[in-house]
Amino acid sequence: MKTASVRTRVKFCGLTRAGDVRLACELGVDAIGLVFAENSPRRLQIEESRALRQAIAPLVNLVALFSDNPPEQVREIVRLLRPGALQFHGNEEDAFCRSFGIPYIKAVAMGDGTSPVDTRALHARYPHAAALLYDSHVPGGAGGGGKPFDWKRLPGDNTKPVMVAGGLNATNVYDLITQRAPWAVDVASGIESAPGIKDGDKMRAFVAEVHRADCNNEHESGYRLPTQGHCG
Ligand SMILES: O=C(O)c1ccccc1NCC(=O)[C@H](O)[C@H](O)COP(=O)(O)O
Known about the structure:
Radius of gyration: 17 Å
CATH superfamily: Aldolase class I
Helix content: 25-40%
GO molecular function, one term: phosphoribosylanthranilate isomerase activity
EC number: 5.3.1.24
Pfam families: PRAI (PF00697)
Strand content: 15-25%
Catalytic activity: N-(5-phospho-beta-D-ribosyl)anthranilate = 1-(2-carboxyphenylamino)-1-deoxy-D-ribulose 5-phosphate
Distance between the termini: 8 Å
GO biological process, one term: L-tryptophan biosynthetic process
Bound molecules: ligand LARABZUK
CATH architecture: Alpha-Beta Barrel
Strand order of the largest sheet: 2-3-4-5-6-7-8-9
Order of helices and strands: EEHEHEHEHEHEEHEEEHE
Number of helices: 7
Largest sheet: 8 strands, parallel, barrel
Number of domains: 1
């Protein structure tokens, strides 16, 4: 039997319904992203997020997303939801991001730029980031826009796990994984029928394509642990 020697982690982001959360967990995603950024159509109120939290299966990570939210709001969400990681999309600096005592992911705005990413500068600016998420928003803009950036701009000299987002869906995630082998992929609109409303068929197709890519991927990324997942 053919086996996958690596496994790409999957984060589904911007869920707003408990049923979608349950299906995502059944499909085997690694993380569920709940959005608390003010400018998002997927933004949750704290009360509704508690029901979603309860729908997350054991061993599946909860990631809480922010974009320049006030610290007391972040603290309140950390207290109530106990996320496994925080994700910051705004102009937050390292000291702020790490001050909540939970591993953090920093989103890097790839925008419409063409210049190479200065990985050294990024690592110096966010020394305590657990991972960097390369996403297609413009600096200061919101995520979840459903538009990819040019993956050739992904840096090759990372010393932190690389996550990729921006316009991913079941038709392009295979190419991303086989071309660039990120540690994790992150998707919001590519698995939706409307902002915040996930589509079961699109979720299934996305996970199936990640699995297919992992089973065909010869590329060994320095950010992955070897695993032996079965490919059928
Ligand atoms: O999803 C949002 O509405 C959002 C708003 C403000 C900041 C971040 C936001 N989402 C961040 C994500 O992690 C998305 O999954 C990521 O940007 C990819 O989105 P998409 O291109 O729709 O797959």
